[in-house]
Amino acid sequence: MIDYKEHQLSNGLRVLANYDECSVMAAVNLLYEVGSRDEEPSKTGFAHLFEHLMFRGTKSVPDFDVPVEEVAGENNAFTSADYTNYYITTPKDNYETALWLEADRMMGLNITAEKLALEKSVVIEEFNQRFLNRPYGEQWHTLREMVYTVHPYRSPVIGLTPDHIRDASLEDVRAFYERYYNPSNAILSVSGNIPAEQIFEAAERYFGSLPALPRPTRNTSLTEPAITAPRRKVIEAAVPANQITIAFLMGSRGTRDYYLCDLLTDLLAGGESARIYQHLVRERQIFSAANAYITGEMDKGLLILTGQLNPSTSFEEAEEALYGELRRLVEEPVGDYELRKVQNKFEANITFGELNVMNKAMNLGYYRMLGDMSLLNGEVDIFRSITSEEIASYIKDNLNPHQSATLIYKKK
Amino acid sequence: MKRPEIRPITLPKVPHYTTLPTDSGAPLYTLHNSTQGVVRVSFVFRAGTSYQSTPFSASAVVNTLTEGTQNFSGREIAEGLDFVGSYYDANIDRDWAVVTFCSLKKFTSETLDIAEEVILRPTFPEREIASYCAKRKEQLIVQRSKPDQLSRELFGKALFGEKHPYGITSHEECYDNLTPEILREFYLSHYNSSSAFAIICGDFGEDVEERVRQILNNLPKGEAPSRIIPPAEPTTLARQTMEGAVQSSIKIGIPLFPRTHQDFIPLQVLATAMGGYFGSRLMQNLREEHGYTYGAYAAMINLDQSGYFVMSAEVAGDHTQDAIDEMFSELERIATEPMSEEELAIVRKIIVGDAMRVFDGPFGAADVTIENIQNGETNDYTERFLKKIEEITPAELQEIAGRYLQKNACVTTIIGAE
Q1: Percentage of chain A with pLDDT > 90?
Q2: Could you tell me whether strands A186-192 and B97-104 are parallel, antiparallel, or unpaired per DSSP bridges?
């Protein structure tokens, strides 16, 4: 349960405050409503590259990290398909330094050709480290290409290829910054032992003089058409074990289908006692490891079933076993006990996830972006309202082989 | 916009724990913070991998405590924990095994019902152990196709020696030889009243203390586990190529001593300056100036009977040697030039900030306490540590760096691109 107060500055910046009287730390989170989905198809990976550039200094603060370190702070950021998130934690008496830094780089970023060149090489090494120099490293590139034909979720956040990152120009940087980085496209959230009124007053002092620019429109018209015939790809590679991954398109964030998918993947794989682990890993020993989860984007994301095969398992057996678990949820409705279990677990995970100021500030920003603040503390109730009939009918209608994309890694 | 003034940072108050007596002699420590409605109980045993005589037996024991007990099947244990949303964590390093239960306050009693079984009455059932071994063997094969895992293993062997308890790695086939008997024997001799302590942290009352005390009282009686840790036998250079690698994983280290040694804290300061934060020397050099890597790090690592300084980075394959040269040049610089007061001020704040962040949230204090007790200290250590950080001088750091951080003492390992 996160208490909060909310305020909007005249330039459009949304500000949220959570009062935490226990912590000696404060967290300042700044979320920009721009992610890899907003990129042009020939310039993928740019939102993430840009996130790196946000640490490359402004005219008044040439090195972003130094002032953070001078107040014993820590900062980082991440880019997702839907948004870009920056956060700084500091001892609470120095949280204004974080506000000042964020306000400064919202408008004053100073990127030179040298800085851009250097950051490109860092991001390309990140690409190499995480996606090329790893077994199965390219699986998300392949899977997303198989599922998404029109929607920009086709490209992973890191980008389709290192070439797109190499090609990024200073002009691209300037245009992206002007379009997306302004108060009306940002959400500031703060958690700490600081009264909300003080936070709003400080936000006004640091961000209030920034210009009111139009909020950029996002391309939300593209809807990925349903998959109607099975898609399948086999990659033969020097991987340590055979692997199967089945992906389905699922409901967008905020729809009831979204929560159904979340809950049904919890039934399958939310904890040691869950079905896939108990039946397929422990009892039948088909997989050495298996999982089910949702990717959680705002538009239609993916529901994933995946497993690494034990040496004696065939691909047919593995695939049939995963579908078998889905069928069982349809044929034998889930009992109350099991539903209560995943609902309890959902509630506990939320409590454990709200124990520090950083997570609280981050959640405030994220739910504000979703547009429905009642979800911030309301998702447990939604989860508790789901019935076994709903799950069965969702699976029957949506999780069939002809609606899937299957990626197989065959060990060379 | 004017920069806000920097307010002085008040050092975090290190919470003090209470020690409760038990009949078995295994101590129980408690730390109360009652605002968040959550409870964590950790059981700590001298049962790390350096105590094992059969490969993988120590980790197999801690990882299969929940696979079956006298009164519950593995499945019932998993069900019981999942039903109340509690989580369970089993952790092992070279020296210690730590078993942790976290629950909502309202479900502490249900969680302790299971904890009691898991700690006191594991049975290591035949079928589950066989399945665990098969699964871990596969997972290890997967792990060993990744450069970071290979790099960790090669480094451990090069730093301590192939047969050394802190450096040894075993072939995955060794999982085929593990039996429930071997596990039971390890459990009885290492999960006993002379090897254990427990800590409760969070929002709880005397009833919870009493239950945990009972668990400690009923541990098998026995002698404290023993082992022999010989001196390290380092190898200067070890290199292993990996087909198709586009990056090289580099580690450079120096075998030193545990945290109880008086020079450990200065070396921690030096390691932080080298690679403990974004503005650190290695990060600035390898990532920011040269773009060789996504990240470069340095740290002092504490073991019960040893310790070491380490620098690491995964770098573009064609810059492997360049990166190594830069790492050594940074090592030489820190040992021959005094650190500026400005840099030291930043490093101090990084260390203090990290310490404060640990105490954000109800459970960080438990981790700090466990580490202090493992090292034979109390939480006063953390206060002394923070005080030492404030007092240390560039001259002292340079002297210590000159004494220990010498190129000719270094072990270098490289995994990856040819």
Answers
A1: 90
A2: unpaired
pLDDT digits (tens, 9 = 90+) for A377-391: 999 999 999 999 999
Closest residue to B360, CB basis, from A25, A63, A73: A25
Q: Is the pLDDT of residue B418 over 70?
A: no
pLDDT the model gives residue B244: 81
CB contacts, 8 Å: B361 with chain A: 23, 355-356
Looking at the complex, report in whole angstroms how far the Cα of residue A68 sits from the nearest Cα belonging to chain B.
10
Q: Which residues pair with A75 in a beta bridge?
A: A88
Give which of A249, A269, A3 is closest to A150, Cα–Cα.
A249
Identify whether the C-beta of residue B222 lies closer than 8 Å to the C-beta of residue B188: yes
User: Which chain A residues touch B350 with a CB distance below 8 Å?
Assistant: 69, 72
Q: Is the pLDDT of residue A371 over 80?
A: yes
Neighbours of A112 (CB within 10 A): 11
Closest residue of chain B to A131, computed from CA coordinates: B246
**What is the distance between the alpha carbons of residues A115 and A109, in angstroms, rounded to a whole number?**
12
What average pLDDT does this structure show over B100-104? 96
Cβ-defined contact of B7 to A310 (cutoff 8 Å):
no
**CATH assignment, B18-217:** 3.30.830.10
Q: Is B135's pLDDT higher than 80?
A: yes
Q: Would the CB atoms of A22 and B83 count as touching at under 8 Å?
A: no
Q: Is pLDDT of A211 > 70?
A: yes
Q: CB–CB of A66 and B293 under 8 A?
A: no
Nearest to B145 among A96, A240, A355 (CB): A240
Q: Is the pLDDT of residue A32 over 70?
A: yes
Whether residue B356 and residue A91 make contact (CB cut-off 8 A), yes or no, is yes
Of B36, B278, B345, the CB nearest to A355: B36
- Compute the distance between CA of residue A290 and CA of residue B188 in angstroms, rounded to an integer: 33
* Percent of all residues in chain B with a pLDDT value above 70, rounded to a whole number: 100
Averaged pLDDT, A20-44? 95
HEC sequence for A251-300: CCCCCHHHHHHHHHHHHHHCCCCCHHHHHHHHHCCCEEEEEEEECCCCCC
Cβ distance B146 to A134 less than 8 Å, yes or no, reads yes
**CATH architecture of the domain with residue range A231-411:** 2-Layer Sandwich (3.30)
Residue A271 with chain B: CB contacts under 8 Å: 78, 81-82
pLDDT above 80 for B394: yes
A143-171 average pLDDT score: 96
Q: What is the percent of chain A where pLDDT is above 70?
A: 100
Instruction: Give mean pLDDT, residues A173-177.
Output: 96
Backbone torsions φ then ψ of B380, nearest 5 degrees: -60, -30
Q: Contact B243/A238, CB-based, under 8 Å?
A: yes
Cα A306 to Cα A272, A289, A295, B8, B65, distances in angstroms: 16, 8, 13, 51, 27
Reading the block at residue A358, the tokens are 């950083």
In CATH terms, are A5-207 and A231-411 the same topology? yes
- Chain pair A-B, CB pairs under 8 angstroms: 192
Distance CA(A293)–CA(B385), nearest Å, equals 43
CATH number of this structure's domain A5-207: 3.30.830.10
B38–A71 CB contact, under 8 Å: no
What pLDDT sits at residue B362? 85
Cβ–Cβ below 8 Å for B292 and A133: no
For residues B310-339, give the mean pLDDT: 96
Rounded Cα distance, B43 and B373, in Å: 12
Note whether A74 contacts B353, CB cutoff 8 Å: yes
pLDDT tens digits along B37-75: 899 999 999 999 999 999 999 999 999 999 999 999 999
- CATH of B237-416, picked from 3.40.50.200, 2.60.120.260, 3.40.50.150, 3.30.830.10, is 3.30.830.10
Q: What is the mean pLDDT of chain A?
A: 95
